């Protein structure tokens, strides 16, 4: 049976390449992964005043993550780090319920620049290693897709064979990792 994955899109942009990448992964890996796209767009600004009783957008987001078997982050880079909206959503997950704790997790990321969100992903790995989050993160398997706008066609499918082959191997590695630790 396919693994139920909450895919957290780190961009709130309608035409986000990271969103398109996850939509592509949802189709391509449907036999292995049952991907639900989880948007951060309606997650309210975090406040410690309401952390025990989160507002609707934050609560809906938290529950989607909590109910999944696994988590996938698709992350762009903003100013050498993750976007503030994604950090906000992660702050919500770290409180009341600790939604990510022990959740098998892997990370992909893309950008139009050549580095493919490497600095953002390095920060993300550090942020989620906090004891209040602490998912079971797939080691290695770092997916940095640079110049993403040159690697997709008009149907938003990846066209770069090297990237596709690498993504296939990362998904296989994740499924193997998941089955080993579950
Ligand atoms: C960016 N972008 C960017 N790219 C990069 O490689 N390093 C960076 O530090 C930044 N910083 C940055 C800041 C802000 C505020 C914006 C809006 C953009 C470019 C960005 O990564 C690129 O547009 C991605 O395609 C955005 O991801 P989505 O929305 O396409 O998923």
TrEMBL record:
GO (cellular component) term, any one: cytosol
Top-level division of the source organism's lineage: Bacteria
Pfam family, one: FMN_red
Record-level Gene Ontology MF annotations: FMN binding; oxidoreductase activity
Membrane-spanning intervals of the chain: none
Domain NADPH-dependent FMN reductase-like stretches: 3-147
Signal sequence extent: none
Gene3D superfamilies on file: 3.40.50.360
UniProt similarity note: Belongs to the azoreductase type 2 family.
Name of this chain's protein: NAD(P)H-dependent oxidoreductase
Organism: Psychrobacillus glaciei
């Amino acid at each position: 049976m396919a693994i139920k994955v909450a895919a957290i899109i780190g961009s709130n942009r309608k035409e986000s390449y990271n969103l398109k990448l996850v939509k592509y992964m949802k189709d391509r890996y449907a036999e292995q992964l049952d991907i639900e796209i989880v948007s951060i767009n309606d997650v309210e600004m975090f406040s410690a005043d309401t952390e025990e009783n989160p507002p609707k957008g934050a609560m809906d987001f938290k529950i989607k993550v909590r109910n999944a078997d696994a988590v996938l982050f698709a992350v762009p880079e903003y100013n050498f780090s993750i976007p503030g909206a994604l950090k906000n959503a992660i702050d919500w997950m770290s409180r009341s319920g600790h939604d990510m704790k022990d959740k098998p997790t892997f990370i992909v990321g893309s950008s139009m620049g050549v580095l493919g969100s490497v600095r953002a992903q390095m920060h993300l790995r550090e942020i989620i290693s906090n004891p209040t989050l602490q998912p079971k993160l797939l080691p290695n398997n770092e997916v940095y897709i640079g110049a993403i706008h040159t690697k997709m066609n008009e149907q938003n499918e990846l066209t770069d064979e090297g990237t596709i082959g690498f993504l296939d191997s990362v998904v296989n590695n994740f499924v193997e990792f998941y089955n080993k630790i579950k």
